[in-house]
Amino acid sequence: MAPYIGTATSRVDGLAKVTGTAKYAAEYNAPGLAHASMVGATIAKGRITRIDTTAALRVDGVITVLTHENRPPLADNDQAYNDDVAPEGTPFRPLYDGRIIFNGQPIALVVANTLEAARFAASLVRADYLTEPHVTDIHTKRDRGLAVKDPITPLDALFAPPKQRGAPGPALDGADVRHDGEYYVPIEHHNPMEPFASTAVVESDGRLTIYDKTQGVQNVQRYLCSVLGLKQDDVRVISTFVGGAFGVGLRPQFQAVLAALAARALGRSVRVVLTRQQMYVLGYRPAMIQRIVVGANANGTLNAITHDAVTVTSQHENYYRQETGWSGLLYSCANAKYAHRLAKLDLPTACDMRGPSAATGVYALECAMDELAAALKIDPVELRLRCYSDRDQHDNRPYSSKALRECYHQGAEAFGWHTRNPEPRAMRDGSELVGWGMASGVWDAFQAAITVRIRLSANGHAEVACATSDIGTGTATVMTQVAADMLGLPLDSVSVLLGDSTLPASPVEGGSWIAASVSNGIAATADAIRKELLRLAALMPDSSLSGTEADDVGLVDGMLVSRRDNARAVSIADAMRHSAVDQIEREITTNPIEDAARAHNTHSAVFAEVKVDEQLGVIRVTRVVSAIAAGRIVNTKTATSQILGGVVWGIGMALHEETAIDHRFGRVMNANFAEYHVPVHADVHNIKVIFVDEADDSNPLGIKGVGEIGIVGVAAAIANAVHHATGKRVRDLPITLDKLLGKPS
Amino acid sequence: MINFQYARAVSVSEAVRLMAGTPGAKFIAGGTNLVDLMKMDVERPTALIDVSRLPLDTVEETPGGGLHIGALVRNSDLAYHPLVERRYPVLSSALLAGASQQLRNMASIGGNLLQRTRCAYFYDVATPCNKREAGSGCSALGGLNRMNAILGTSDNCIAVHPSDMCVALAALEAKVHVTGTRGERVIAFADFHRLPEAEPQRDNNLAADELVTGIELPQRGFETHYSYLKIRDRSSYAFALVSVAVCLELGGGRIREARLALGGVAHKPWRDAGAEAALSGQSANEATFMRAAALVLSKAKGFGHNTFKIDLARRAVVRALSQAAGGTPQSQSNKKIA
User: Fold this and answer.
1) Is the ipTM of this complex over 0.90?
2) Count of domains for chain A
3) Is A708 a catalytic residue?
């Protein structure tokens, strides 16, 4: 039987998804289900002096209106509101008191017999406020940011700027060529297709089952228990399918609290679905102002990099990631220095969004490298090869694997880069200027502890269970493939259970760590199953496998087979039946292999072609080639989709995406799909994805993960292509056509 | 849900009578704009008078050689109507530049005329807006106004009319047929929509009880030299930053007649008689086009975020005129600018 790992296996849940039988959080029903509609604050900062719900309560079908004045008890300490991925600070408490800390903040929840009644009544809730001055513009606080220095928690310590190395000041002074540029990325929102929703079902024994849209059911489960003061067994959180989350579902979101709170208050099942507009107050990619200075020798080697960043967070929590550190990691460079400050604004807390910190930080670095290449008159790919490093520059350690050089070569070859005329404005197609740009990408290859349970039945069926989520990336499919290979079963003999807090422990799904973590967890658990099978096989009379070591047998086509002599084989079913075993169950926690001596990363090289109307500035991204080095690719189909999605998102980041806040109101004004632009089909042309071979032994299956790497570098490649086409450097995203209109032509 | 009455009219006269007798009522046909506005709490009609099944869904040739388009003809049906494609291609093109296929399938021609501005403040009831609530103030003036008007603005409102179709209709000098309790009348297209002035809450000159029953196109369709050029922030499903409808009649290397209408720049489709006159009788070349473009934008005023539109509109006018004169109209399926 050919292995499934490494093939283009179609999604195991594809049929269920496209036929509508896959159920999402807002689609679960329960007897007597009530519907709730959230009311959001209309000021950015201050407090509620009076909240009037009388008109709402008069609406036919309205059951109750919960506000900070009449809600059931909520925990009164910050610790209770913490979650697995909370940054340091004071987490937001929904409906806790009358304090308003961001515009759109939930101030009331109207619960009714019908959604229509709830929504209408929600429009009748009136609040009077005592307003306080607010600030929502990063630019007004750019020089008054809070320096990220010595984080308190271990998680935050991971994200602090790396220590300075060498002496960047003198090195820059001595550089033959120096580039100094400031780059800007606005606030962006995730906009998953599926709305955030929670259906809180009150079971007959009074316990709560919450069907939630989340990237971590156990994170939400623990959070709800502590916030609502419930015992662990009283709350179960289920999230079987997730219609995209991209980081905004990593932390428990307030609709889950609201649904659970209402269900507790009423003793009745309640569903809360946020509107598209309301999803613009859940979290966002922080706006980032960043200054990069690079110094190089005339031969194209780097001698110094400095990276200063200001990013947005809320007044109440200090969210940041490794925004500046990527710059000093990627290229060989003896001197580097970083500074990161937080602009604390009257907004919700920023949160992870696809490729958090790398999508933005590497954008600036890779634009700066392009500007440096132009100044040095060196081809952009050649410059990166001259600066290539086989060692992690922060800690001077080797990589477990790094096939970035092959990404450059294969990507350039597929793109036809060698025919590029290096001069800006030198390539044309009729009325359009043609530009070719490229950029590198980098992300982490994380792995986390995870627990997997496998039940193998004598009838040849295996059930694989883990509390991880499948946020649409294909986790369930990857789990099925890996289990089928490890257990020697066909795909349809494997079923997967996930997205349920009662299943074996998993971290939140994010950071591209789940594919490697859960796959190796399955492999380790399958090993234990195999050992047990061998023990049972050896008990059989005249067993051809007696005396065989566990490492010497494999599971193939329902048989336990000696790897040395495949004539020595025992049927799994026979071995189990002989000992009257109907089912073998193993639950094993797999920890990442300690390997601090090496760095673990994925890489990419992205090549983009743009065509820009010379007169009108209209930009089209006509071709993208993305060459990815990410270890073993478990499923070439779903992995390709991940990269395609990342590239499309990169096109949006480069040309379209920007959350528009009216700073007078501190309010998002384009909170809908008509006005918040993401690429439409007509904006997406040819995209080619290449996975270069990259053998990695950091984990037994050699998996690294591909969720984030696809977006990293794309915006820079496009920005660089726009410069090559037009001769104009636009350093603030998105590159809208007005930024290309110079003097009237 | 906000309760409202619903009545389906079986005739134009009944529709009009119902409207006249029901304060706060709205007509509904495709509902592609009104339903959104109701969801957003911007519109709260006391009653919806459903006109979607009135017999106003035909396209017929008129004795004068023009076309009469029923108000309930779907946008997509009109865009692909053989007579429109052949004789009024600028109208077909403008229709296809708007919205998405799904919306065009639902939206009626009459409704397209009456769609309301996309100004972000008009849509958000938490912010002041004179168009939504007279006297509350214009938030766009000192706020986010990238999409707002540069021509014909007032201190009370800088909203734009979002239609693509209407820009072509303005250039074609269509007529709007309406019926009210006092009978039928015909309104010249240029007189149908209004500038904001002191009453931005009024988008057009329809009386409260009047129903749009049809559009009349004159005989001339400018099928040889035309273009509809729409410049927007992404390739499709985006409202115009600036759009230009051009209709030219050329002869002997000169422009005999020029029609020029702009979208995305004003509270109504923008025509400029002076600019059209400046084109008339001139050679169809870039210098001529630039002179006309400069004239159109000579009184334009930017408000910060949208100031670039003045330059953009100038360029777009020149380009659209070149496309029309060259017989290379802008394609709405190939997004490359012709």
Assistant:
1) yes
2) 3
3) yes
